[in-house]
Please model this.
Amino acid sequence: MIEEPYRWVEAIANRREYVEAQLAPGSPIAALGYRDGILFLTIGQTRQKIFEIYDRIAMGAIGHPGDIERLRMTAIELASTEGFTRSATDVSLRRLVHYSLSPAMKSAFEQVYGPPYLARMLFAEVGERPEEDLFLRLDYDGEIATNGATYAQARQDFAALSGTRQSRELMEAFLKTQHAADASLKAAVNFALDAWSVGHITLQTSDAKELPERSAVTKYRQEQLANMGIEAALLERDASKAIRYRSLSDKELRPLIHD
Amino acid sequence: MERSPVAFGQNFSGAAGDFPALLRSNGLLAPAAVNPVATAERPHEKTWQPTEATTILAFKFSGGVLVAGDRRATSGNTVVYDRADKVLEIDRHSIMAIAGVPATAWEMARVLEHSFQYFRRTQLQEMSVDGKVRALSKLLRDNFGFVMQGVGVVVPIFATYDPHPKPEARLYFYDAMGAQFEAADYAATGSGSPAVRGILYYENNWGAKPLQELSEDEAVSVALRALDTAAESDTSTGGVDRSGKIYPLIKIVSRKGITTLPEEKIAAVFKETVA
Model:
């Protein structure tokens, strides 16, 4: 069937539709820069979704757990091998994703007789200075979006990941208006919770074009927090430590929340 | 079909969290010795020369485990380096102190450090203390083929803090084949260790108080005296270089993690109780 170009395009389009449908219910993840590093945050109650990849690199992912696990292992293997043979400072998120993960995901997606990766990932790498922080989103087809690795784009110190494009764009719109780079951890946690709520509300409606009302966001957040847990991790900009990744427990986070 | 640039096979080593296996599969680590005693067929050849020319000591005191090492690196009769660092931090709570061939020892420390991190990242849990102790044992065992060929002998000490089941500092020493021994009070390795072992045994049994009850300053004093004694008769041990102001490296493992004692502090204790 796929010998004919048209059939191949059709097969890819079908596959895209299928993967998007599988990813659509994925609970959002927000990553944002704060005064002393980068915060990763999501709300959930079942699987772990935020992971340590290397000293300065963290990953958040939605999708099928088996696929996420394979990609996570591969990323850790690549980073660890590089860190061992050269040095920890030679491990770079840009190289990891551009040269290794993205091409592999693209070919898995386009080889229509093999299974695609049902996963969408958000990576962040903390730099020595805030301007060097890299946020990078990698999609199931190998597509990469960053917070400004090129000169053509204005830099952003946040990134979002969600089940649908619309939900993710509204989270980004929300963070763009609300979030400041030098926010305290407490402020960042609250912005991230609000951004998550924006993303989660808009996942459930198919035609959300505008940000929900402020009061609706607050109310939704309170309802969700009543019966779900917060999962979060930090990449700290503390140069005295080699390993910058630190996970935060729900218990540590609750006192930081204001209504 | 074109191969993807990354081997996304089903048999990825990450599932087992075994970092040395990953390195070997990429050709980045020497293969484990399959039959390390093969050279025993030629008994007339002198194969194994124990060249652990240094002195490393560790003992438990009131504040955790103190690990100290002199700074001299030698090759035969030549002093190669007088600021060698033989007390190495492996993770937030573990120290490996090394006697033996530096190239192999430092490589081993590097593999070990990455192994613990790799395990934590892939398996999403910290490796247990027993697992860490065993990991070093396995590296030594894998290296024994080189030891039998007369190169690459390493005899380390491993000190760590174990939060489970009973929070306490723990201390292990090894032989070159990888046998591990848990030390109740103290351990020493390297060419200067016989003298040090004598001193620590004496201090522990008939000293002012047992080693485990010493304060930090008292412990530092015992460590400096022991290294100075070892250097008295062992040419490979640097001890304290009084003219060059080079002091031994002393680190402490406790519940809080690892503390490296500043040189001024060691100098002060040295001036007061040793010199």
Summary: Helices of chain B lie at 19-25, 102-123, 129-148, 193-206, 216-233, 263-273. Residues 49-273 of chain B form a domain with the Glutamine Phosphoribosylpyrophosphate, subunit 1, domain 1 fold (CATH 3.60.20.10).
